[in-house]
Design brief:
Blueprint (H helix, E strand, L loop, with lengths): L2 H20 L1 H9 L5 E5 L2 E4 L4 E4 L2 H4 L8 H13 L10 H13 L6 E5 L2 H16 L3 E5 L8 H5 L4 H4 L9 E4 L4 H7 L3 E6 L15 H12 L2 E5 L13 H5 L5 E4 L11 E5 L1 H8 L14 H16 L2 H22 L4 E7 L2 E6 L2 H13 L2 E2 L1 E3 L2 E7 L7 H22 L7
Parallel strand pairs: 3-13, 5-6, 5-7, 7-8, 8-9
Antiparallel strand pairs: 1-2, 2-3, 4-10, 9-10, 11-12, 12-15, 14-15
Helix pairs in contact: 1-2, 4-13, 5-13, 6-12, 14-16, 15-16
This protein binds pyridoxal-5'-phosphate (PLP).
Length: 424
């Protein structure tokens, strides 16, 4: 078989398996939009079944803070694999303890006690349960457009009706305030167990709140006795140009959730980090109320410890600030030339969203970017916003390359589609 015949066979096999055994409608949509098969990856680059390279500006939806297969993280995982992969769970594990200590050192204020899970949504589940057990209250306040995950609890505090409706009834006692609106929040917070907020809404369309918002949430929680859960699953770990987006606002939440970039994109891991008083109020009497078999396993902890070292030692938050400023400025310059297609470009650090005037443009822009060797992705709760969220190790030259591709892709979309009417 020639190389190209082998590549074609791999594509066909993978597509057919997705179509027949994974998710038939999604398989067809991915095929129509020209999605290739990923085969290997390194740094900012993914290589497909044809050997073509892509700059990954979807960034695994924020997972690949350190790029793919960072050598220090891979080495740490390899070494751990030779010692012990998963925990027996009946003994202490040194890596889990070390990771919890390291997170206590790095997270703001007196956040100290960590619980480890395997994903963002599990971290959120843990935080919600912690809040109920600690406060003995039931109500949660979320924000409209928020995304916290798709398990029942996390979905219950998430704000996209299309994702929620088929699974009703979700958790009772959940109310939503418009994101960024402290007056609305003040009217809802009184008897709440917790307010859960993303410092910047990622999947909601990269929505950046007014500068005083997080401090206002903190004050309202202090006044009402509700806990402040900051969901930093996407914004944390350097993404927004600081170790945590809460640091940018100078705010210490009661509970912080983390996942995505926590292991530098090598192992799945999620966590919440809580203030000791909150954790004690919930679990001091029964430490086994909330547990996970795989959460905080040695491989994931080894990866996270190495990833946190790289994040801090290489000051990737500073690179996120510098490269993010270039990406934002470049995308805004392009947007200004296509005012009928692009409504706004916004973001913080390397979490950048391009709001289109009609989602139809995205259906051309994303595949056209792909043709030019750049990945991008929709935000999950807002189909008119395309995210540009490359690894924090991205270089200025790679930003420039992606921006050139973006410019061409927008030009193709506008030429092909003309002026689309914005849906009201
Ligand atoms: N919280 C936030 C802010 C997220 O952006 C996401 C995923 O995009 C989640 C939670 C859920 O994470 P996971 O998909 O790992 O369950």
């Amino acid at each position: 078989m020639t190389d190209s015949a082998a590549a074609r066979a791999l594509y066909d096999e993978t597509y057919e398996n997705y179509r027949d055994y994974v998710n038939p409608p999604l398989a067809r949509v991915m095929k129509l939009s020209g999605s290739p098969v990923e085969v290997s990856a390194e740094g900012v680059t993914i290589v497909d079944h044809n050997g073509k390279s892509y700059l990954d500006f979807a960034g695994g939806y924020g997972v690949f803070t350190l790029g793919y297969r960072h050598p220090r993280v891979v080495a740490a995982v390899r070494a751990q694999l030779d010692a012990m992969a998963l925990s027996g769970r009946t003994m202490f594990n040194p890596l889990l303890g070390r990771l919890a200590k390291r997170l206590a050192e790095l997270t703001p204020g007196d956040l100290k006690i960590s619980f480890f899970a395997n994903s963002g949504t599990e971290a959120v589940e843990g935080a919600l349960k912690l809040a109920r057990a600690a406060t003995k209250r039931a109500k949660f306040v979320g924000t409209q457009g928020a995304f916290h995950g798709k398990t029942f609890g996390a979905l219950s505090v998430s704000g996209r009706e299309a994702f929620r409706a088929p699974f009703a009834p979700l958790l009772a006692d959940v109310v939503f305030a418009p994101f960024g609106d402290l007056t609305a929040l003040a009217a809802l917070v009184d008897d709440a167990a917790a307010v859960i907020v993303e410092p910047v809404q990622g999947e909601g369309g990269v929505n950046v709140p007014p500068p005083e918002y997080l401090r206002g949430v903190r004050e309202l929680c202090d006044r009402s006795g509700a806990l402040f859960i900051a969901d930093e699953v996407q914004t944390g770990l350097g993404r927004c140009g600081a170790l945590f987006a809460c640091d940018l606002a100078g705010v210490v939440p009661d509970v912080m959730t983390l996942a995505k970039g926590l292991s530098g994109g090598v192992m799945p891991i999620g966590a919440y980090v809580a203030r000791p008083g909150v954790w004690n109020a919930a679990y001091a009497k029964d430490p086994l109320l909330h547990t996970s078999t795989f959460g905080g396993n040695p491989l994931a902890c080894a990866a996270a410890l190495a990833a946190l070292d790289v994040l801090v030692e290489d000051d990737l938050a500073a690179n996120a600030r510098a490269r993010g400023a270039e990406l934002l400025a470049g995308a805004r310059e392009i947007a200004a030339r296509y005012p009928d297609a692009i409504a706004e470009v916004r973001g913080v650090g390397l979490l950048v969203g391009v709001e289109l005037r009609n989602e139809g443009y995205g259906g051309t822009i994303i595949p056209e970017l792909l043709k030019r060797g750049v990945t991008a992705a929709w935000t999950l709760n807002q189909q008119r916003v395309i995210r540009l969220e490359p690894p924090l190790i991205v270089t200025a030259a790679q930003i420039a390359t992606a921006l050139r591709a973006f410019d061409e892709a927008v030009a193709v979309a506008v030429e092909r589609l003309g002026v689309l009417v914005c849906p009201t």
